Every structure is written in structure tokens, then in C-alpha cells.
Amino acid sequence: MYSIDRIRFGGLSSGLDTENIIKQLMRIETMKVDRQFQQKTLLEWKRDD
């Protein structure tokens, strides 16, 4: 089995800044996880009260 290394050109051919788009999407996902963690922590505090 072999692996092919792919060269990324960051949207040169499409005109899109794909790297920035991916970073923004990851930021949104991270915010969702952070929000879920906050909600979980709040529920634990209420439960322990």
C-alpha cells in the first residue's frame, strides 16, 4: 500500500481562502464544545446544591 502526498495551494485555483474558511469552521466547533462544557458544569453545580 502506498500513500500519495497532496500539495495544498490554499485556494489559488479557486480564489477561495480555504485555510481561513477551515480555521473559522473549527473555531465555531470549538465554541460549541466550550458551550456544552459550560452547560454541563452549570448542571453539575445545580445538582450539587
Q: Main attributes?
A:
mainly alpha; 49 residues
List the helices and strands and how they pair.
Blueprint: H1 18-48
Describe the protein's architecture and organization:
Helices cover 63% and strands 0% of the residues. The protein is mainly α and 49 residues long. 0% of the residues are buried. The model has no long low-confidence stretch (mean pLDDT 84).
User: Level of helix content?
Assistant: 55-70%
Record field, number of beta strands: 0
Low-confidence stretches: none
Query: What is the radius of gyration computed over CA atoms, rounded to a whole number of angstroms?
Result: 19 Å
Question: What proportion of the residues form beta strands (DSSP E)?
Answer: under 5%
Give a quick summary of the entry.
By secondary structure, this protein is mainly α. It has one helix spanning about 20-49. It is about 65% helix and about 0% strand.
